[in-house]
Design brief:
Blueprint lengths: L3 H11 L28 E2 L2 E2 L3 E6 L3 H4 L14 H11 L3 E5 L9 H21 L4 E3 L8 H13 L5 E4 L14 H10 L2 E4 L5 H6 L6 H20 L2 H4 L4 E4 L10 H10 L14 H4 L4 E3 L5 H11 L4 E2 L12 H7 L5 H16 L3
Parallel strand pairs: 3-4, 4-5, 6-7, 7-8, 8-9, 9-10
Antiparallel strand pairs: 1-2
Helix pairs in contact: 5-6
Length: about 350
């Protein structure tokens, strides 16, 4: 067994060229204090539970440089600090993802950028499979290429799925042009993590005080993306798709019955070519969601709407507002021990293929 010192040395080597950043623009992160605290072990009803964080961010500066982007100097969270922060929060495994910033890139740049990112993520995860897994990056602006990149990342590099944005250069994910990617994700049986990356239309309305681009814009973008995937028949076309929505699915689970009434009240505004196989709200129980909803009541409501088996622990690490994500699940009333264990890591472990 490696000593902690050797572990940190190996981890630092594997992390060379990896930056851990927040969920906004590259470089939007917050550091952690130094030190080496004892690793927190999470126990539910006497059983040690391996916790899996489905929502954790990083960046590859060398890949960003291909699009003339840089990570802000203060955003870097180095290997030992990352390990310390995970240990403090009680996070055993992080599923790393990179928010798309490359959708405007040409094919050659996107190909090289994605190759570099995925290989670097694979190197990190292979060196420390007990602490990190990762979602592949894909150039979704070229759907056929994205499908090829996903297959290579999963079958050759050992990555566990894909991370995508809420739209692609103004086009909805339900657009038929993206069917090759959805088909490949369904074929491979891997999880797709959908995280908003901001859209020009919403940005104009969310300027000013209150960090509205984040607190309103992000969940709204996710709500729009999921709604199109439902109403345009994408989820019917690919019923085996495993899709996880960030931030508790945005606003959709909180006002779901209105979706059921839309085509009933205004049938002339719904395409006759799209015949949904079930009510829109029923599709919510086919998706997965992270637990980033902040309050006990919000988490209980999400459980009531989609079922506890569809909710996965998420921290938004290293963004600092979810340092108590594990305690949130442990402390909310009305859950069984099995439900808590499932949300903390058991469900994610199955979806990500963790041994």
């Amino acid at each position: 067994m490696r000593s902690r010192r050797q572990f940190i040395q190996d981890l630092t080597g594997a992390l060379a060229g990896v930056a851990f950043v927040g969920c906004g623009l590259p470089g939007d992160a917050h550091g952690e204090s130094p030190g080496a605290p004892r690793r927190r072990e999470v126990v539910v009803s006497g059983r040690r539970v391996r916790t899996v964080d489905i929502h954790a961010h990083c960046a590859i500066p060398a890949a960003m440089a291909m699009m003339d982007l840089k990570v802000a100097p203060g955003s870097l969270l180095l290997g030992p600090d990352r390990l310390q922060a995970m240990d403090e929060q009680g996070i055993d495994v992080e599923a790393l993802s990179i928010n798309p910033y490359w959708y405007a890139a040409g094919r050659d740049v996107a190909t090289a950028l994605i190759r570099l990112q995925n290989e670097k993520l694979a190197e990190l995860c292979a060196a420390h499979p007990d602490r990190f897994v990762a979602f592949a990056s894909v150039a979704l602006q070229f759907p056929e290429l994205a499908a090829e990149q996903l297959q290579h990342a999963v079958r050759q590099l050992g990555l566990r799925g894909a991370a995508i944005g809420g739209s692609v250069n103004g086009e909805e994910l339900s657009n038929p042009k993206f069917h090759p990617f959805w088909a490949k994700a369904e074929e491979l049986g891997v999880l797709v993590f959908l995280h908003p990356q901001g859209t020009e239309e919403l940005a104009r309305r969310t300027r000013g005080n209150g960090v509205l681009g984040n607190v309103i814009g992000n969940p709204l973008e996710t709500t729009i993306a999921l709604s199109h995937l439902i109403f345009e028949g994408t989820l019917d076309r690919y019923p085996g798709l495993k899709l996880c929505a960030a931030h508790g699915g945005g606003y959709l689970p909180s006002y779901a019955p209105r979706s059921d009434q839309g085509c009933i009240t205004f049938p002339e505004r719904c395409s006759p070519d799209v015949h949904l196989k079930k009510r829109p709200t029923e599709y919510l129980r086919d998706l997965y969601y992270d637990s980033i909803v902040f309050t006990d009541e919000a988490l209980r409501h999400l459980v009531a709407q989609v079922g506890s088996g569809r909710i996965l622990l998420g921290t938004d690490h290293p963004y600092p507002w979810t340092r108590t994500a594990v305690d949130h699940i442990l402390g909310v009333s009305g859950l069984s021990d099995a439900e808590r264990a499932g949300m903390l890591g058991d469900t994610a472990a199955k979806l990500l293929g963790l041994a």
